[in-house]
Amino acid sequence: MSKMTLSGVLAGLVLMTISTLAALLAAEAITRLVLPQDMGSIVNIYVQDEALQYRYQPDARARQKSPEYDVEIVTSSLGFRDGEYSAAKPPGVCRALLVGDSFSVGHGVPVDAGYAERLEQGLNAAVTGAAQPWEIVNASVSGYHLYHYMKSIEIYARRFDVDLVIVGFFVGNDFGGHDASARREIRNGFLGRYERGIRDVEQVGLGVRVRRWLTPVREWLATRSHLYVLLVRSTFPALARLGLVDPDNAAGLDRYALEPNPRVEAWFAATDDLLARTKTAAGDAGADLLFVVVPEPFQIDAAAWDRAVAQSGRGAATVAPDAPNLRLRQMLERHAIDYLDLYSVLRDGRGVAAYFPRDGHWNEVGHDAAARALLPIVAARAGAHCGAGSGEQA
Predict the structure, then answer these.
(1) Going by CATH, does the domain composed of 46-178+256-379 fall within 3.40.50.720?
(2) What digits encode the pLDDT tens for the residues 198-215?
(3) Do strands 94-99 and 134-138 pair parallel, antiparallel, or not at all (unpaired)?
(4) For the chain, what are the domain ranges?
(5) Which of 101-105, 136-140, 357-361 has the lowest mean pLDDT?
């Protein structure tokens, strides 16, 4: 009887395993058909960097692919998604340094369609008479935050003798510290802290032994299973409560609340400190400083905003789509830092078409709108010190 019972149990386990696998495979197939995820949107060309924590590999090449785009990422000898530049600025040239995250890199669009390249082209197309030509050195890296922008300015602004530093600040995740204490390991060219929010296992106290097998499993699923990526993205808030994701990525509408929130106020305080340090870094290099404020998609899409508010469970009167922008503008003005807030530029009705619907980054329409808004502001920066050509040698 016991043998029959054991055989029955084993048969049941096998049947249950097969049924579970069949159900998962069916769910995977349906997800790929109905809600395909951007599996190839995060490129594996990162390397560790002592000063910047991480950056793109020099002279690297990769494809960035999703259901909404298929583009090539090529980096220069310095790891920029840009061309090569001499350290010494050519005489008569105005030079700007752009530092930012995936929006400024041009996530999902060809390099010549990004706002950095469009802005440079627009500036030079307007060069006539005594006007000076422009070079825009794009040192942006996907995954960077305000701390990295500040460090990039310290490293590159003086090296390339720039006249202007442009900082692309994304409202969605650039508030907060993100300082040297938040170092991220590089694994197989990817950022070691799982790109879609899952923390390394040892960070939540489950032990090194568990991490040894669980982290590779997560990495394998993250690059192959559309169902897994969909589930992770859909459960950020619950995972945050369990301590399994970076809470900054699961903050919901906390930044948009009209009443003070201790955690968000801490982010704002850290941001204020980094703004002061960023201004000092640009000033030490003899460069002007201009912030470009990049809004989240639902900030400029009224229907998407209403859905986000409803899903958050908050009352509509307790949040506002421009609340974090207002706080940032107040900080920038207090530090006497010039800025262009693209919230008002995109909110006029063009903004809904400016983002990839699924991915959430700017498409070519968004980059074009940003470049057009920046053009007159940057063009007006050409002054007596612009083009002096006193750059340091590399």
Answers:
(1) no
(2) 333 333 333 334 445 566
(3) parallel
(4) 46-178+256-379
(5) 357-361
